[in-house]
């Protein structure tokens, strides 16, 4: 039934994905489909490979010395690890938001304009202004910063900085947004704002979020994947994973027996 639903087709698909850091194997034969128009949450105990899986999708692991990736990983059916893939283009299509907000030490405006400038997305200043304003608006930040666009991005509050980083990611019109514990450095109010934003963004982007908060996974995601010791143990509708897990390991984790 799912296969007939085009809205639910896999945007990102992994088959037999393995990752090694030198001798150490971090992922074992991961088969995972990530659908468009949905938020997919990756959960599991520390060290189980959530960030490793996430970083494969935009090839951030390329930057890690001794990291090796085997198996297949595709974006819209195209091999992400094909030797002719332009990694800069890939990372424009697959944006990333990190655990700690990391705005550049530049103005709010220049933070958002950075990607569009690099990729030559605007023909003139007016177009660049438009991209910056739209991105800030989509990130739910425009109202708070429109009168101080030339002030430094690092002067914003933590929650505002994280939304600025989301605006920066959105500005290059990505298709997929990867978020690695995007709220773990934020207070509950800022967290609620970012969660609300994630829900709004899912219509237009495919979102994958790593979180240690099961409440957050339940609030923001439609599908949840549970990892344990480098293996994907179970993947399903978020509600099913949290109310009726099929695997004892998943059950143990969500009821807090380990993790
Ligand atoms: N750069 C690296 N070099 C060597 N080993 C690494 C590296 N990055 C991760 N690992 C190892 O790979 C395994 C998976 O790590 P990963 O960071 O993906 O886990 P995680 O699920 O994101 O954990 P956490 O919840 O603590 O962020 C761990 O055993 C970790 O020690
Ligand atoms: Mg991690």
Describe this entry's structure for a reader.
This is Phosphate ABC transporter ATP-binding protein. GO terms for molecular function: ATP binding; ATP hydrolysis activity; phosphate transmembrane transporter activity. The protein is about 35% helix and about 25% strand. It is an alpha/beta fold. A hairpin with a 2-residue loop joins β4 (about 65-75) and β5. It binds adenosine-5'-triphosphate (ATP) and magnesium ion. Adenosine-5'-triphosphate binds near residues 47, 49, 52 and 64.
Indicate the topology.
Elements: E1 10-21, E2 24-35, E3 39-43, H1 50-57, E4 67-75, E5 78-79, H2 87-93, E6 94-97, H3 108-118, H4 125-138, H5 142-145, H6 158-170, E7 176-180, H7 188-201, E8 206-210, H8 214-220, E9 223-228, E10 231-237, H9 238-243, H10 248-254
Parallel strand pairs: 3-8, 3-9, 6-7, 7-8
Antiparallel strand pairs: 1-2, 1-4, 4-5, 9-10
Helix pairs in contact: 3-4, 3-6, 4-6, 6-7
The structure holds adenosine-5'-triphosphate and magnesium ion.
The site of magnesium ion has 4 residues, from helix 1.
The kinds of small molecule bound in this structure are: adenosine-5'-triphosphate, magnesium ion
Biggest sheet strand order reads: 6-7-8-3-9-10
The largest sheet is:
6 strands, mixed
* CATH topology assignment: Rossmann fold
Query: Class by helix and strand content?
Result: alpha/beta
How would you describe the shape? globular
Number of helices: 10
CATH level 1 class label: Alpha Beta
């Amino acid at each position: 039934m799912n296969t007939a639903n085009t809205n639910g087709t896999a945007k990102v698909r992994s088959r037999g994905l393995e990752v090694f850091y030198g001798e150490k194997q971090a992922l074992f034969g991961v088969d995972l489909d990530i659908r468009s128009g949905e938020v997919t949450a990756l959960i599991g105990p520390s060290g189980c490979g959530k960030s490793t899986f996430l970083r494969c999708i935009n090839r951030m692991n390329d930057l890690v010395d001794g990291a090796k990736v085997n198996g297949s990983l595709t974006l819209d059916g195209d091999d992400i690890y094909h030797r002719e893939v332009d990694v800069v283009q890939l990372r424009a299509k697959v944006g990333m938001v990190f655990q700690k907000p990391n705005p550049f030490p530049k103005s709010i405006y220049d933070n958002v304009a950075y990607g569009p400038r690099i990729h030559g997305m605007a023909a003139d200043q007016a177009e660049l202004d438009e991209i910056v304003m739209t991105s800030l608006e989509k990130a739910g930040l425009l109202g708070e910063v429109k009168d101080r666009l030339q002030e430094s991005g690092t002067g914003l509050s933590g929650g505002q900085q994280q939304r600025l980083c989301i605006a920066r990611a959105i500005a290059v019109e990505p298709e997929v947004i990867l978020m690695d514990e995007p709220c773990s450095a934020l207070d509950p109010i800022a967290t609620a704002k970012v969660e609300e934003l994630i829900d709004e963004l899912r219509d237009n982007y495919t979102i994958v979020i790593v979180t240690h908060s099961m409440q957050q996974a339940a609030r923001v995601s439609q599908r949840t994947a549970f990892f344990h010791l480098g293996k994907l143990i179970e993947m399903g509708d978020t509600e099913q994973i949290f109310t009726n897990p099929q695997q004892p390991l998943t059950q143990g984790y969500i009821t807090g027996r380990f993790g």
